[in-house]
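In response to reviewer comment 3 from the previous cycle, which asked for concrete evidence that the modeling workflow produces usable outputs, we include below a single protein chain processed end to end. The sequence was submitted unchanged, and the resulting structure tokens are shown without manual editing.
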Amino acid sequence: MVRQLGELENAIMTRVWQWNRPVTVREVLLDLRSEREIAYTTVMTVLDKLHRKGWLRRERVGRAYRYEPVSSREAYTAALMNDAWATSDNPAAALVHFFGLMSPEQREALRDALRVAALFPPDPTGADSADPGSDTGGTEPGSAR
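The workflow returned the following structure tokens.
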């Protein structure tokens, strides 16, 4: 089960995902300071925790670390949706309610996604049992270990 990111974790991961390159604590700090007062050590601690939870990988460059995401925001969102759906006693009814909450734009995005998914049907032999949208080789960051 994937744990939802906290508010500061999400603010940091949003930047890391958007920038799509390795980032330093200082870069994240300077960008966060446009929104809030925050200490260098706070950002450093959260990045370290995200690394230990499996959300980020890091590489030492000189005296600092550079952090980059292990998987995409889309993979994270899909895992959260899957976990939420899995809690239902009636998955079909949950989907019907979910679709009812969607905006017209979201329904169109769903139609587009279903068209793409139809191009890649599952292998009936089970040889492709790993989630094709997952960047983590079947282990989602933030899951219980």
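The beta strands are 56-61, 64-69. We consider this sufficient to address the reviewer's concern, and the full set will be provided in the supplementary archive.
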